[in-house]
Amino acid sequence: MTPKQRQMLIRALMTERLYPRGSEYRTIQTLHDKGWCRDRWTIGRSSITQDGLDALQQKCRPTEIIEVGYLHILLINGLPAATVLPSQVSTMRQFLADQNL
């Protein structure tokens, strides 16, 4: 899974229908060819298959913060759990890295 495919799956999980831009249509077609989404031209929360969710969980750490566009998103087991404010990203990363919790 490429970083672009991973980002596309995460963005799709956050909305019912994602409106792709430019070359993102090719990424959606690749996801469809791999069996990770049901439609070749649109993607959204309902169009992602269980195989796509499993592939996303395999490529993600148990808990991590990633940047998707202008958003910082907290992923838990590969699924988006929350949006982190830009001013709180470093604090949140320190919190997640603390092994004493």
Q: Which properties best describe this structure?
A:
alpha+beta; three-stranded antiparallel β-sheet; 101 residues; 40% helix
Describe the protein's architecture and organization.
With 101 residues, the chain is an alpha+beta fold. The radius of gyration is 14 Å and the shape is globular.
Write a concise synopsis of the structure shown:
The chain has 101 residues and is α+β, with helices and mostly antiparallel strands.
Ordered list of secondary-structure elements with their pairings:
Blueprint: H1 3-13, H2 24-33, H3 50-59, E1 63-68, E2 71-76, E3 79-84, H4 89-97
Antiparallel strand pairs: 1-2, 2-3
Distance between the termini: 31 Å
Which structural category do the helix and sheet elements fall into? alpha+beta
Strand numbers in spatial order across the main sheet: 1-2-3
What's the gyration radius in Å? 14 Å
Instruction: Count helical runs.
Output: 4
- How many E-type strands? 3
The geometry reads as globular
Mean pLDDT score, rounded? Answer: 90
